[in-house]
Give the backbone structure.
Amino acid sequence: MPIQKVSEGKYRIWVSAGRGPDGKRLRYSRTVHAKNDEAAKKLLKAFEKEILKDELPLPRNMSFKQLWDLYIRDHVELSCKPSTREWYGECGKRILAVFGYMKASAIKPTQISNFFANLRDKNIEIAGLPGGLADESIRHHYRALRAVFNFGVKYKILKENPISCVTMPKAKKKQIRPLYDTELPKVLDALANEPLKWQALCSLALTTGMRREELLGLKWSDIDMDNCELSVHRAIQQTEREGLLIDDTKTESSKRKIAVPDKIISILEFWKKEQKLILVKRFNRMKKLNIEPDVLKLLEQLKERITNFEDEFVWNQYDGRPMFPRSVTHYWIDFRKKYNLPHVTFHGLRHTSATISIADGADIVSVSARHGHADASTTLRVYAHALESADRQIAKKWDARISEISKWHTSGTIQTDDIK
């Protein structure tokens, strides 16, 4: 019964509104004062109109933890890459420790603002994790919260997003240092002393500007030696939860063809021969061993890899799987220290490639396409420093041209004997 008489002139009314996103039945009640049953029915209709004015009634008792879990299940797990899923897991540790028990609809902007202040405070631990987070880390937490609240509003679980009036913490613009022209010879000389495998990887990173994960996703079939170009189809992801994963590229624009310098193609050809020879030698060694089931299985696997060598990853592990991205980072750090090279990260090679391309006069659209940016505006934003440097070079070239073809005083006025 939607109406129950409690006492004279006092009624209890109920509105049933199906089930909420969490699968639980939604039923709302209110105590009203009415002269008689007819008056109570009118109040019930008004209550139904109030509750059902949205397509989906608000599950007012849903906790933020329930909302978070719903967002992870219905969006993150279905639509996001493993690295993004892991990112939400990391952000969720502190977010759920603070907001998890609260009603999602009751969270206030001031509470969110205080949360960000506590993240920044070195003396405050949250969920057993240290405080004093960097601005960019705090921005990550902001984005995660905003996404979950937006999900709640979109599916009418929440009436409004409480984070919408909280300003995203500002982050200092972090410039990734590239190698300078004067430093390149020293780096290349040092690289010449390294194994062929690393010469090929680092020189390709430097000259194409490919991301680390894209380089490790390359197979020999992706490289057209005759036409000196390669195709980027995949990227290798490494996560704590799921380990090594072969994934699509970062964006659709990241799938691209890149021209490769002839000298780098030569290095790749040498590395291809060496890599295949390593497999053949291993196969021949194993053939001499006692024929046991495990050995036979490995022999078959090696034979198949040699036969289908074009399908091998250019940089792989002993078992044929692609290398771990972090292995490249660790190698580059050790390499840098070994030869006392400038403090430039492996990702800095990508920035070096773009910076040199811009300095050499390449147009922004071409640089953007070569580096797999979503659009040219990304290139303009990321490499603004290189564009400023190129702009200064343009000014100097104009200065040289004017000096060569004109007679000017140091004050900048034309000499009087040139005026007729």
Notes: The chain has four domains: 3-51, 64-165, 184-349, 385-420. The chain has 15 helices and eight strands. The first strand starts at residue 3 and ends at 7.
